[in-house]
Amino acid sequence: MSHRERNGTERPGDTPPEDAELRPAAAPGRGPLDLSLLRTFLAVHRTGSFTAAARLLSLSQPTVTSQIRTLERRLDRELFARGPRGTAPTPYADELAAQVAGPIDELAAVADQGLGGARPAPQPVHLAGPAEFLSVSALPALAPLIGEGVRLQITLGLTDELLDALRAGHHDLVVATYRPRGRALLSVPLSDEEFVLVASPDWARRIDREALATDGPGALRGVPMVMYAEDLPIARRYWRHVFGRRLTGEAAVTVPDLRGVLAAVTAGAGLGVLPAYLCRAELASGALVALLEPEDPPINTAYLVRRPGTPDNPHVTLVHDRLLGAMRDW
Predict the structure, then answer these.
(1) Of 50, 167, 248, 316, which residue is the least packed, with the fewest Cβ within 10 Å?
(2) Which residues are bridge partners to 89 per DSSP?
(3) Neighbours of 186 (CB within 10 A)
(4) Contact, 47 vs 184, CB < 8 A?
(5) Torsion over CA of 104, 107, 113 and 119, rounded to 10 degrees?
């Protein structure tokens, strides 16, 4: 029984008798429920979408919709609230998912082993995330696992698209630039990215860095900007956080890969805002100069995200744990 039911905060008509229990395995007088209905329900609950659940189960969306409606009729309860922003589980659905997830996942693991009981060889681990972070940080950290038989399939992209694909079952793990909302995905902090305002030594000599520190970004007037995107998302955040001002102007160079920004700024194209992990070697060698060293630099936290109830692939756990260990020591 839910907290809301115990405290009498459900809407009238929603609360079962006090001695009633949640019985997903059977509806009174109607026989046991079809396990396929519960499996479909769990997929919708985890993915947060009828469409994503259909892709995950290799079913059509009308089939998924029909099965959920059948289950709702059998249980005489609404399971999902449909709205313009997607599908949200009801409190009853959250309880039902918590009760059936373990048994259904265990049955799926037994089915995956086959009749002989032998566990199949682990499948490749599908890891997705930003191109720069995976290339510079994650893949070097995971390299030792390849000698242990781990296979990796890497997908590069933007967080929104990658999380949608994760919900649909296309990835095992995603490095996300923000924490996803809702209960469909599990996330843990992976690393903090500190952003640095940098330029080549030649440009640094031309900039009055004392005026920059005391008077703000007026000291950068006339210095070309090398940026990740036309709307200057990283630099705009840096300007707001450090200078307390809105960034105006246009980039002289736009390249949708921070490694390209690093290369252009190092070669003298202008200034840029980069995560410290990406330009650490250049700063140490003097190939780049940090124009400011604020006491409170802007920081973005990266998260390692996975779906609950994914197939029992031990290599996914190996990759997950190796990334967490390596990045916390970074």
Answers:
(1) 248
(2) 80
(3) 15
(4) yes
(5) 70
Written as six digits, the tokens of 86 are: 């997607």
- Cβ atoms of 81 and 90 within 8 Å: the answer is yes
- What is the C-alpha separation between 291 and 196, in angstroms, rounded? 8
Asked if 194 contacts 186 with a C-beta cutoff of 8 angstroms, the reply is: no
Residue 280 CB partners (closer than 8 Å, separation 6+) = none
What is the C-alpha to C-alpha distance for residues 178 and 160, in angstroms, rounded to an integer?
Answer: 9
CB atoms within 10 A of CB 99: 14
Measured CA to CA, the distance from residue 259 to residue 267 in angstroms comes to: 12
pLDDT in tens, 241-297: 999 999 988 999 999 999 999 999 999 999 999 999 999 999 999 999 999 999 999
Sign of the torsion angle spanned by Cα atoms 292, 296, 298, 304: positive
**Vertex 294 angle, CA 257 and 206, to 5°:** 70
CA–CA dist 55, 167 (Å, integer):
10
Could you give the maximum distance between any two Cα atoms of the chain, in Å? 84
